[in-house]
Fold this protein.
Amino acid sequence: MIPPTGGPADELAAVVALRELADRLEDAAVEKAMRQGWSWSQVAEGLGVTRQAVHKKHLHRLIAAGVELRRRNG
Amino acid sequence: MLSRAIDEASARRSTTVEAEHLLLALATDEGLIAAKVLADAGLTHDAIEAALDQERAESLAAAGIGPVDESRLAATPRQVRPGWGPSVKEAILRGKKPVISDGRHRPSETELLIGILQANLGTVPRMLAIAGIDRGDLIERARQA
């Protein structure tokens, strides 16, 4: 039986932990940028994704957070 | 129990519900045999959370990443319900079809616990190993309960 820690198990778990950390960092950073008045386009450019992608992923969350959002084409 | 697992996943800001969230849900209900088996091994809800945090910290350290200040990660939670991850699906399947059937009838929560504990790789067995818990012994205790 392969042990759950050490060797490749640690490397694979690092990937899992990094993905989780990246998700959390993205949520925090997008929210921070939008609170500072960044536009959807600017956030998308900063993340290296399309404006549609960032909009779809974060719009509802930011509305719930009460962040004042600039128009999507802004 | 499954809806409680979803709540645990949301509380831990996970985009998917995984076996560790089901384990946390089982540990919450002190009336369950499964929760008692876990508590007897020192695995209360809070202790499991601490052990999971430790597992993540050690996994990040394996990639050379030090602790990240929680305040930098503060964000409004996602509004979408976390989906079912592979580890929880596997645990539920194993819980429904006990690998070793000895003909004894156990409450389904205890079978679920055994199903979670039978994973050899991934977050739960890593968390248990790092916390110094003997997984085989814990499975045996759940079977005897």
